[in-house]
Amino acid sequence: MEAFTELYAVWPNDTLRRRLNSVFHEIRDIAIGGKHHLTPFFRRDWTPISYRGSSNRARTTHFEQAHISFGHNVETAWLLMEVSKALGFTNDTTTLKVAKAMDDYVITNGWDQELGRVYDGGYIFQREKEVTITMPTKQWWAEIEAANSFLMMSELFHNDRTSYYQKFCEQWNYIEKCVIDHRYGGRYWGGIDKAPQNENGPKATIRKAAYHTTRGMMNCIERLDGKR
Question: Which of 73, 116, 122, 202 has a CA positioned 20 to 30 A from the CA of residue 16?
């Protein structure tokens, strides 16, 4: 969806529009649906992959296939709004409600109330309704995606009791304090409040891409300057 959205901005091809519209509805209406969080993996018939009723070992082994990724929630929230805009949907209240609900879900279920900011992951165990935080770490990409998403929501919902602009400010303060390496530059893999070993870890790995931070910073600057 990300790739198609950017490509469509410079190549408004009819086939590409149909593909983008298709994947947009698959993500919004199936992968999210009425749950307010993404289902990460499905079988070929769109049956969600779940290990809620399995053993703890099975859940741990297949965690990546069935957990709740708070970073992907806040990222997808603003991406859905970008697609809606790119496709020219007007008064798209359905997407707006879904995006807001996803950000609210993260703030309610994946927010570190003591130290602040967005956790990496959680799990809803069998016979439970609340999310249990199973990955209390905070990765570099999720934190900037949250800042970008909350700032977007602050524009759309000025007087909401969630106070998205305050959440954005708290996100940025956390990034500046615990994620940015002010001595050597760049960003740690994750917040050093939860994983102090990141201070001495590698800045670049096969999975640590720069597009999250670059895009997030550019979007935030444009929003703060009133250009977006």
Answer: 73
